[in-house]
Amino acid sequence: MATKKRTPRPAPAPEPEPSKCGPCNGTGVVARTVHVGRKRRTVGQQAGICLACFGTGEATD
Ligand SMILES: [Zn+2]
């Protein structure tokens, strides 16, 4: 069986660059302020994984 005319495939589109995650600005890490005690005194900052992108730094839909 001869195959009929095939529709030409369009060239594959270049992969779009992943958009940066907002909260971590594409780093995948966000600084968290650490509070202690009832007065919630700030004792410093700690690097934490970005929960918006789970550390990938790429924005998810
Ligand atoms: Zn993020």
Structure characterization notes:
The protein has 61 residues and is mostly beta strands. It has one domain (19-61). It is 0% helix and 28% strand. The chain is built from no helices and two strands. The chain has strands at residues 29-36, 41-49. The chain has a two-stranded antiparallel ribbon. The mean pLDDT is 88. The structure holds zinc ion. Residues 21, 23-24, 28, 50, 52-53, 57 line the site of zinc ion.
Strands of the widest sheet, in order across it, are: 1-2
Largest sheet geometry: 2 strands, antiparallel
The run of helices and strands is EE
Count of structural domains: 1
Number of helices: 0
Structural class: mainly beta
The radius of gyration is: 23 Å
| Ligands bound to this protein structure | zinc ion
How big a fraction of the residues is strand?
25-35%
Mean pLDDT: 88
Which percent bin holds the helix content? Answer: under 10%
Low-confidence segments, given as residue ranges, are none
Separation of termini?
A: 45 Å
- Backbone shape: rod-shaped
Could you give the count of β-strands? Answer: 2
